[in-house]
Amino acid sequence: MKEKILEFQKNLNLLIDRANKNEITFESIYDHIRIRDLLPETEVIATIWSIDDIREKFPEGTPDHILVSALGDLYGMLQDAAVMAGHEVIADNLNPVDFLEDGDPRSMMYKIARG
């Protein structure tokens, strides 16, 4: 994990150097990094919501700070919806036997428990 964090830091520092040299804008740094690169390998993030996802609901020319505020108001609901939907997807689609090797005693125990 340490190597992953140090690699991310190195790439971020290179982007900041490029922005300081006016090769890219500071705002565009976000276009060059992935939030998933910050997560531990044991975690998954399904999606990230952006103001671009709600922009069409507002009149043309609505300032970004209004969209940020609106998206912020939805944050809790979006998070709750993602958790509920995620639990449903896991319950409906995850079969641990598919990931256990043949002959693994846990595989047999799971099959017996599931009937």
Would you mind describing this structure in some detail?
The chain is mostly helical. It contains four helices and no strands. The chain has helices at about 1-20, 30, 65-95, 105-115. The longest helix is centred in the last third of the chain and has 30 residues, at about 65-95.
* Measured distance between first and last alpha carbons: 39 Å
Uncertain spans: none
Biggest beta sheet summary: none
Give helix % range.
40-55%
User: Number of helical runs?
Assistant: 4
**Number of DSSP E strands:** 0
Walk me through the topology:
Layout: H1 2-20, H2 29-32, H3 64-93, H4 105-114
Keywords:
115 residues, mainly alpha, 4 helices
Summarize, please.
With 115 residues, the protein is mostly helical. It contains four helices and no strands.
